# Entry
Amino acid sequence: MADSRLEELWRKAAMKCSVCILSGVTKSDVIYEISEGADTLEKLKEKLPLCRNNECAAHSPTGRGCKENAEALLEIYAPVWKMMNENKCSCSKK
# Structure
């Protein structure tokens, strides 16, 4: 479970904010992959160049690496995306 302060930071962060300071992966990149079905850290790592050993944490002003940042974004956005997909509107189906 992600730190609630970190989740709050990512809720307010702009889409262009870096999740991984070394690879340049942004909040927007992570949210896009969540919308494409990445619902675990492992799936995000398959799609995005996140650090394998969280080495970016040493270079981050917050001391948090892409592992913690991506996990916080998953906690916020993956359940919402799942709920949206489970409740798809069937209005256009005849």
Summary: The CA atoms of residues 2 and 68 lie 7 Å apart. The mean pLDDT is 88. The radius of gyration is 14 Å. The chain is about 50% helix and 0% strand.
